[in-house]
Automatic annotation (TrEMBL):
BP term (GO), one: electron transport coupled proton transport
Topology in membrane: Multi-pass membrane protein
Protein name: NADH-Ubiquinone oxidoreductase (Complex I), chain 5 N-terminal domain protein
Positions of the NADH:quinone oxidoreductase/Mrp antiporter transmembrane domain: 136-206
Lineage: Bacteria, Pseudomonadati, Spirochaetota, Spirochaetia, Leptospirales
GO molecular function (one): NADH dehydrogenase (ubiquinone) activity
Length: 253
């Protein structure tokens, strides 16, 4: 087994689970939960094997796993690629390990819910988005993974959309997330403008040439941190206002 084959497989498994649960959950019924949970457990197993093969305590150079060429325009080349290193592997183990346990618990917790298949489709999509977020080799894929996480948060918060509280909370989460996304997009644009690349490998080399305390670094950091703040329940923007979630966040039940 090689990491170049394992990483795309462990990322694709939750996506397959999402498609099967979303398209055929109506007919699979309760088996949807078992299938969706199984693909995440399998993804966790592949993550464990990748962790052992990578030897994270010995290697310091990341391994780039390129799946296919993606964007080629105006001299810009972006590949659908994943960066495997100590941090990304640890995060992959956390996402798939804890995620598989959440799936397993949800089989019993959601057994009587009419949206059983839809719920597991959302969970599988959530795992897929998080894996792309932590394994991305470039800022474009990272941003898409981040957007996927935000979308799944909206879908799960507003899961019981027939309830006004859930629908309102889901919409508020969606709007606040878009404010944070603007900061992240500005950060990506600044990085590309200064380095001419969105690849983390190229960006890392270019940063070494930036003089200490150059304005581009703190400004870009603020932009990315504003994107990070979207995941907080209390979001304070630079203009000084605060928005709070109305009471406790709703959850499927």
């Amino acid at each position: 087994m090689e990491i170049a084959n394992l990483i795309p497989a462990l990322v694709a498994l939750p996506l397959i689970g999402f498609l099967i649960s979303g398209l055929f959950g109506k007919w699979l019924k309760r088996f949807t939960g078992i299938f969706s949970t199984g693909v995440v457990f399998l993804s966790f197993g592949l993550a464990l094997i990748s962790f052992v093969l990578f030897h994270p305590m010995e290697r310091t150079i990341p391994e780039i796993v390129t799946v296919l060429p993606w964007i080629e325009t105006g001299g810009i080349q972006v590949s659908l690629a994943y960066q495997v290193d100590q941090l990304s592997l640890y995060m992959t183990l956390i996402i798939t390990g804890i995620g598989s346990l959440i799936h397993l618990y949800s089989i019993g917790y959601m057994k009587d819910d009419p949206g059983f298949a839809r719920y597991f489709a959302y969970l599988n999509l959530f795992i897929f988005a998080m894996l792309n977020l932590v394994l991305a080799e470039n800022l474009i894929l990272l941003f898409l993974g981040w957007e996927g996480v935000g979308l799944c948060s909206y879908l799960l918060i507003g899961f019981d959309y027939h309830k006004e509280t859930a629908a309102n909370a889901g919409m508020k989460a969606f709007i606040v997330n878009r404010i944070g996304d603007l900061g992240m997009l500005l950060g990506i644009a600044l990085v590309f403008w200064y380095t001419g690349s969105v690849s983390f490998t190229a960006i890392g080399g270019a940063i070494l040439e930036i003089p200490p305390f150059r304005y581009i670094i703190p400004v870009t950091a603020v932009c990315f941190l504003s994107g990070r703040s979207e995941s907080r329940r209390n979001f304070r923007c630079t203009f000084g206002f605060r928005t709070r979630w109305p009471g406790r966040l709703p959850y499927p039940h």
